[in-house]
Request: fold
Amino acid sequence: MLKPDNHQRRQNLSKRPENLAPLSGSKSMNAKVESIMHPILRRFLPILLLCGLFIINMAPDAEALTRCGDCQYPVASDALTCPKCLRKLKWPIIPERSRSARVVVRTGSDAFIRHPHARVRQYRDDRNSGDDQIGHIGSWGGPTTLRYLLRFDIPRAFAMAQVDMKGFNVRRALLKLCVADHGQYAGLPIRIYLLTRPFAEGTGIAGVREQDHDGCDWYHSAPLMVWHREGGDYAEKPSIPAILGEDGENETIIDITELIRARFDEYEKTGIWNDPGLLIMRDVSRYGYRGYVTIYSLEASFIGQSVRSPELFIH
Ligand SMILES: [Zn+2]
Reply:
C-alpha cells in the first residue's frame, strides 16, 4: 500500500530540482528543458524505482504493529503467535513464509527421553532406541517427564544450500513440528531451550530397547556421561514458549529466531560452531497438568508429498 505513494513522492522529489532550475522563466525554455530531461528521466526511472524498492525492503519488518484477535495485545506484524496469550495469529501468509526459507534444515539427530516415572515398564521405553519415528512431549507421572532433544545439522544444510554461515544474519528461524497424536487435550504449552551439552542419539532399531543402549536417556547424555541436571543440561535463557498442536492442528510452526540467532552470535564471536541442540518440554509456568502430545521425529519419512519430520527454516 505504501509503495505507490513512496514511489510517487520520490519521483516528484527527483523532478523538482529540474523544474526549479534558473531556466524555468520562459515557456519555450521550459519545453526545451523538458525535451532534454525526458530521455534522461526515462533512462533513470528504473534506477529510481529500484532505489525506492530497496529502501522499502530495508525498513525493519517489525515496525508495523497489529493486535491479537483474542486478547488485543499489540504484536509485531510478522509474529506467528501472540506473545501474551500464545494464540496463533491467523494470517494467510504464514505457511507461505515458512516455505520461502533461504536454508531448510531437515537432518540432524534427536532423541526422546523420559523420567522413569513416565515409563511403561513393559516396553522399557525409558531406554533409548534411537530410531523411533514418533515420541512424546509433555507430562506423565510428573510435569515435564517427557522431553525431546533435537539437534539440526545447520552447517550441513548451509553447505548444501551454498550459503556462507560466516556473517550470516539470521532474520528469522522457524521450527516446524508435526503432531502424530494430540492426546487428550487441544494443545500442549511447551517451552524450547538451548541445550548446553551434546547428546548421543542411539543407534538401535525402532521399538527395540536394549539393556545397554548407546544413546542418551534421562540420566545420561551418552553412555557413562551423566547430565549435570537430570533430564538434560540447558540454558534457562533465552527460551521460547509455544503451544503444540493447538486446536487439533497437525503442524505447529514456532518462531525460534532468538535461539538460532544466539548460536550464530556465539559463532561470530568465537569462530567455532557449537550447537548441542534444543530441548523441548512442557511449559510448567503456563497451565495446569496437561498430558502429552505425540510428535514425529527426524526418522519419520515423507507421507505422500508432505514432510512429517521436524524442519527448520532459516531466513
Ligand atoms: Zn493474544
